[in-house]
């Protein structure tokens, strides 16, 4: 996967990782720690990468939000996953707002489309309806969005 050179620098490994996809600073730090680099070296490397705009939590968060919207995930789940990846609340909120504005995201319509891809009716029985509600809830949609999506099928 990576070069077998045991002398690979912290920066070399970080660049190899970033060449594949965007990473949050926390994810990148964790990956570098797993490769037994020193904490001071990791911090210095990540600071340098951020200064050079090679690593950006803002860019990572926006990319992540767009990819999750394309998968039909709601804001609750997206926020939770970004927090797990070490993105702070301010960066997370700014990224969500930027993507929502730039791409005119309507969470209610996204919930409706996500539900319609899986189911063709709102469910005949309360049990079937509850199954659809759970499906959308695990996708990260709130109660109002779920209710709207079910009313549109």
SSE arrangement, N to C: HHHHHHHHH
Shape: elongated
Q: What structural class results from the helix and strand content?
A: mainly alpha
Assign the CATH topology of the largest domain. Answer: Arc Repressor Mutant, subunit A
Largest sheet: none
Q: Would you identify the regions where 5 or more consecutive residues have pLDDT less than 50? A: 1-6
Instruction: Name the CATH architecture of the largest domain.
Output: Orthogonal Bundle
Q: In angstroms, what is the radius of gyration?
A: 20 Å
CATH superfamily of the largest domain: Winged helix-like DNA-binding domain superfamily/Winged helix DNA-binding domain
Name of the CATH class of the largest domain: Mainly Alpha
- Please give the share of residues in helix: over 70%
Tell me the span between the first and last alpha carbons.
46 Å
User: Per DSSP, what share of the residues sits in E-state strands of 2 or more residues?
Assistant: under 5%
* Individual helix count: 9
Whole-number total of structural domains: 3
InterPro entries: RecX_HTH_1st (IPR053926), RecX_HTH_2nd (IPR053924), RecX_HTH_3rd (IPR053925), Regulatory_RecX (IPR003783), WH-like_DNA-bd_sf (IPR036388)
Domain RecX third three-helical: 106-150
Pfam family, one: RecX_HTH1
Protein name: Regulatory protein RecX
């Amino acid at each position: 996967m990576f070069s077998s050179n045991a002398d690979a620098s912290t920066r070399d490994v970080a660049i190899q990782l970033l060449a594949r996809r965007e990473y949050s600073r926390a994810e990148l730090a964790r990956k570098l720690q797993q490769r037994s680099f020193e904490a001071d070296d990791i911090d210095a490397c990540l600071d340098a990468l951020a200064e050079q705009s090679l690593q950006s939590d803002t860019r990572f968060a926006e990319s992540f939000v767009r990819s999750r919207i394309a998968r039909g995930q709601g804001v609750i789940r997206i926020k939770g996953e970004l927090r797990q990846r070490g993105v702070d609340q301010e960066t997370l909120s700014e990224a969500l707002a930027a993507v929502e504005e730039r791409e005119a995201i309507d969470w209610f319509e996204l919930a409706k489309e996500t539900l319609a891809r899986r189911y063709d009716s709102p469910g005949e029985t309360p049990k079937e309806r509850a199954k659809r509600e759970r499906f959308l809830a695990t996708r990260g949609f709130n109660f109002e969005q779920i209710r709207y999506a079910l009313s549109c099928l």
